[in-house]
């Protein structure tokens, strides 16, 4: 199933670009990988994520009716790398993948070199970024549910 209309409906590209534009201080980004901090923030924001130590990412997977939503976060060295995938009725939905590549697929004018990954300089900024990213994820789930009701 092609979910491009769903991403367009929620203005996904502009919202993601705004997140990256507002959180883009690479020179002062936090260093290191604080698994405890990341796990606590994800939990605080209301999500249950499985941590894959070997790959160093968190995965949230939710099944709602016939749809399975996958959301992955790699948080380290001041960068927030996010991926999304969706399976509807046992079939993968496209486009999917890393959010900056997804934006590039959706809009050829998206400048991935400038707006690739949000960057955080503090725990507070990371929490703000995660809230914004999760809001985008929730918008996507709601819009896809509405889209599927019409199909």
Automatic annotation (TrEMBL):
The protein here is known as: Uncharacterized protein
Q: Which organism is it from?
A: Pseudotamlana carrageenivorans
